[in-house]
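Retro notes - structure team

What went well: the batch runner handled both jobs without manual restarts.
What didn't: labels got mixed up in the shared folder, which is why I'm recording both outputs here explicitly, each with its sequence directly above its C-alpha cells.

Job 1
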Amino acid sequence: MTSPQSGKAPARIGFWRRLVGLAAPHAGPRRAVGRRAWSGLRTLLAELAEGKGGESLARERVARLIGHYTALDTPERRRFFTLLEADFEVEEARVMASIEAYRGADGPARVRSRASLLQSLESPRLRILSQFKLVPEGVHALVSMRADLLKLAPEGAFAGLDQDFLRVFSAWFDIGFLELKRIGWSSPAALLEKLIRYEAVHEIKSWSDLRNRLDSDRRCYAFFHPRMPDEPLIFVEVALVRSLADNVQALLDEQAPTLDPATATTAIFYSISNAQAGLRGVSMGECLIKRVVQLLMQEFPRLRQFATLSPLPGFGAWLDARLADGAESQKWPAALAAQLAGGAMRSPAEALRHLMRQIIDGDRPEDPALKAWLTRECAAYLLREKKRAEPLDPVARFHFSNGASLGRINWLADPSRHGVQQSFGLMVNYLYTLREIDANHRAFAETGRLAAAPEISKLIDGVARPARPA
C-alpha cells in the first residue's frame, strides 16, 4: 500500500519491510566480511549493549545483527562468538566498585546499592541477547545461533557467552510459556517431516513407520513456544499397551495388530527427543512427562502404569573398558571365556558381541549364565557408576532426577546391530509410579539415592566396584 499524497510507503510499513529484509536468511554464496564490516558489526553490538534509542530502534538493530550473522561463514561465526566472549564481558572494575558501595551503605542506600551490584553482574552481551525477542524471528534465530556455538566451540570454550545464552533461555522457555500439543497423522506435513528428522532414539525409517507411531494406540506430544510455533522443542512418543514392554522391535512392529486404546492399562514412553540443539541444557523433559501423564489419565482412566522402555547409551563403552581391564575375569561366563580361548576374537568386547549376535540370529541357544552375568553388570553400571555424584548414564540421570525408579532390565530388548553395539541388546524400564515420584525426586536431589526394584538392587551385591585410577 502507498500513500496517495506521496506515492511512498508509510514510515511504519517501510520500517517493517527493512526489518524483514534485514532478518531474512542470506541467499547465494557468502562473501568474506571485510575489516570495515567487522568494525560496523562491533559498533552495532555496542549500541545494542548500551540500549539507547527506544524499542523501535532496538528492533531495527537486532534485525540488522541477525542479517549480519546469517551472512557469516563458519570461521567468521567463530570470530563473532570470540568478539562477544572477549569484548562484552562483565566489567570487573564496576563489579568491585559496586561491592564496596554495598558494603558501605546503610538503610535505603543499601537497597539501591544492592540493585546496582546486581546490575553490574549482568554482562553487556546478556543485554544484547535479551533483545532478540523484540523481532518476530528473534527467538528462533538465537536458538539457532547457540546451536552453532555448541557445534563450533571446544568444550569449555566461550563459557561466559554460553552461560548468558542459558540465562536468557531459562526465562524465555519457562514451562509457563510453552504449549503442549498432540501430533497426529493429520498434522501438517512439514511438522511430520520434522518428527522424522528430529527423532533421536529410534530412527523413523519411512512414512509407514511414522504412521504406525501415530496410530490410535499411540500418542505423540510436543512442547512448542509461541515465537517458534512450527518448531517442536521436545517431543515424546507413547505406546498404549496392556503390560510392561520388554522389546522395542515388537513395540514398533508395523504388522502388529492395533490395540483398542480404551483397554490399555500401561503407557510406555519409548522415545523422548530434544528437537532443538540450541536448547541443550534447558530443562523441559521432566515437565513434558508429567503433563503427558495427566493428559493420558484424563483420556484413558484405565491406565494404571506409566513406564519407559529406555536405551543404555553408555553401557557398551563402560563394559568394553571393564572387559579390557580384565575386571573380575574369573567371574566371566564360560561362553565368553570359550570364545576368547579360541583365539579368533581380538578382544573380550568383540567376543561378547559375537555371542549376542549368535543368540539373536538363532545360531546359539540362550545362555542363562551369560544372561545373569550381563544383567548384573548392567545393574552395577546404572546404580553405582557416577559422574559428579550423579548416574554416569545420561538417560538414567534424566529419569532418576525426575522421580522414576529402575523397574526392570530387559534381555535382548533391542536386538538391532545398533542395540548390540550400544548396550549388548539390553534396555530398561524406568517406572513413574505416581505416588512415589515426588519422594524419589527429593531423595535423589538431597542424598543422591536411586530408587530401584529390590530384585535389581540385590543383583549388585555380587559385583565388585571397579578400581579407580590413582
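Job 2
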Amino acid sequence: MFKLFYKINLFFFIFLFLLIAGSKAEIIEKIDVSGNQRISIETIKMFSGVSVNDNVSEKDLNEILKKLYNTNFFDLVSVKIDNKKLFIRVKENPIIQNIIFEGIKSSTILEELKNNISLKSRSSFNNILLEKDKKKIKLFLNETGYYFSKIDIFIEELEDNKINLTYNISLGEKAKIRKISFIGDKIFKDKKLKGVILSEEYKPWKFLSGKKYLNESMIKYDERLLKNYYLNKGYYNVVINSSFAKMTDNESFELIFNIDANSKLFFGNLQIDLPNDFSKSNYEEVEKFFKKLENEPYSINRIEDIVEKIERITINEQYESIKANVNEKIVSNKININFKIEETEKFFVERVNILGNNITLESVIRNQIEIDEGDPFNQILYAKSLNNIKALNYFESVNGEILDGKEFNTKIININITEKATGEIFAGVGTGTDGSNFSFGVKENNYLGRGVKVDTNLNVSDERIKGKFIVSNPNYKNSDKNLDLAIEATSIDRVATSGYKSNVTGFTVGTEFEYLDDLRFGLSTKNNFEKISVDASGSAKQKKQDGNYFDSFIGLDFIYDKRNQRYQTSSGFLSNYSVNLPILSDTNTLTNIYNYKIFKELYENNISTFSLSFKGASSLSGDDIKLSERLYIPGRKLRGFESGKIGPKDGSDYIGGNYVSVINATTTIPKILENVQNVDMVLFADAANIWGVDYNSSLDNDGIRSSVGLGLDWLTPVGPLTFSLATPITKEPTDIEETFRFNIGTSF
C-alpha cells in the first residue's frame, strides 16, 4: 500500500515539474533574426509580436510561428529561446517576377483569370495560395464550359530569389449540353420547362450563345427558375430533388432535373388585416381582387401583385412605410392567406449596385432605375425599376436584393442580371395564289453594350422592293428619351395591279419619352422624295399624279402601356394613337392611326390576344391623296388574303382606300401530338375592312373580309419556323387569296 502511494505521489510531482518547466517564461533580452534577404529585421520582429523585455515561454513559440507563416512571406520559419535570447530563422518565399498564361487565346478569359487569382506579379510566392489559385482557375473554366481543361504549373527560378510562374492550360473542347431532360413528377412537357431555364441544348447555329455549355452556377440558377415556375402554377410544395449532368460522349452531357411537383393547391380565403388608423375603404380594390382569386391555382406572382397593390395604395394615401406580412395556412387543397399590414421605419437608399453586366454599359441600366441613392426607399419604385430593366430585353434574368446598409436606417440595393444574345438574323417567305414575297434582315438590339438598336432589312415582293436602315438610342445622353433615325428607299411597281410605279427615298428623325406613368409621348419628322410614273393604261385621275413630289411631316405619338411585361406578355393591354401632320407637302395628306391590343391568360399555359386597329388618310387641301399614300391591309393582319389584292378597284387596278380597320384574335391551343416537342399551335381569326376612294366614291368595295386559321411555331434544327394556314370566311369576288405563309429566323 505504501509503495502504491509512493508511486502515485512520485508521478504527480514529475507531472507538476514538467508542467511548470514547460510553462516557464523567460524575459527576452535580445531578438536574433537571420536568413532574411528582402524583409528587414525590424519588420520580422513586428510580425512576430515579440519585443525585448517581453515574457516568452516555450508555449508562446507556436503563436510566433503562426504569426510569421500567416504573412505568406516565408517558406520556412524556426524559433527557439536560448539563454534569454529569441532566435528567429527564416527562409523567404521567392518573389514572383511574372505570371504567364499559355494556351489561352481569348482576351476576355485571360483577363478574368488574371483578376481572379490571389498571386500577383511582384508579390511573394506561396504554395498554399498556388493550390487555391489552381482550383479557382479550374472552377472558372468549368463555368465557361471547359470541363475537360488541364492545368500544368511550371516554376522557373531566377536570380535574387525570384521566379516566373507559368500556367500551361489546355482548354480542350467545351462541354456541350447535348440534351436536357426532366424526370420525376414533372407535370409539364419538356419543351415548356426548357423555355423556363437558362441552360439550353447545343445547336450549331447558336454559335454566340454560352448557354449551350455546361455551367454549374447556371444550373443552380435553373433550379430556382424551375421552382418559381411551379410555384406560379399552383404547386406550392414543389421540390427540385436534384440536378446533375450525365456524360453522353467524350465532350457532351445530358443535363437532368429531378422534380417532385406534389399536389396542386388553390387560393382559399384571402383577407387583409390593417392598422387601426388605416381606412379600410381605401383597400376595397384589393378585396375585390381577393374574390377573383378564390379557387384559382396558387401563384407566388399573384401574392406579389397583391403586396404591390397594398403598397401602392399605402403610398398614395401618404401613410408611413409599411410591411405586408403574408401568413399562409393550408386546409385540404386550399391556401388561406392573411395579409397583415404593419407600419415600419423609413429607410434610405445608401447604394445601388449593378452586377453581372459584362457587355451592357452600367449607365444604360442605371437610366432605367427610378430610385436614386440618398432617396427614401420606395418598394413600388424599386419594383418598377426592375421591370424597366427587364423591358430592355437585353437580359435572360433580372433579380434584385435588398441588404442592410452601414447605418441602421439605410439599405443597399443589388440588381443582378444575366445577359443574353441580342442580335437576330431573320428571313421570311410568303406564297399564295398570285405571287410571293421575301424578306431578310439583321438586327442588333444592344449595339456595343450601349443600348443602341441597329436594324437593317430588305423586303422583296412581286410589286415592291423596300430597304430600311434604323438606328435607335433609347437612352440619349443618359436620359429617358429615345432618339431614332431611319433611312429608307422603296421601289414600287404596281403597273399590273394599280397602273403606276413609284420610287421613294426618305429619312425620319424622332424622339420618345415618358410623359406620365405608363404614358409615353413621341415626336418625329419625316421627309420623303418621290417620283411617280403612271402607266398609259392608268385612269385619267391617276395620270394627273405623274411627276415628282416632296413631303415633310410632323408625327405625334401617344402610347399607353399597361402590359405586365413588354416581351412574352401574358396580361394587360397596349394602346397607341399616332398622327402625321403635313408641314410642307404637295398633297397635304393627314394620317391618323390607332392600335389597341389586350392580353389574357384564359387557362393554364394559354395566352389569348385581341387587337383592333384603324388607319385613315385624307388631304387637308381637298386634293386626292397620292397613289403611294393610299392604304392597304397588311398581309400579316389579314391572313388568307394576298396583301394589296383586296378592296377598291379602278378597272383592273387595286387602288387601295382612304380608311382601313382590322380586328385580330388569337389563342394558343393544347398539343394534339403529345410526343412532338418544340411545336406550339395557335388558332386565329382575322377581320378587316378597307374603304373610301376620295376621287370616286362609286369605286368603294367596302365589304368586310374575314378568315380563320391555324398557326404553328416550330423550333427546328435550322431555326424557328412559323407556318400559317388560313381560310377566308367572307370575301368579295375580286379578292385574291393567300392560303399559306411561313417565316424562318434565328438569333445570335
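One thing worth noting from job 2: The chain has six domains: 20-92, 100-170, 176-260, 266-343, 348-419, 423-747.
We'll revisit the folder naming next retro.
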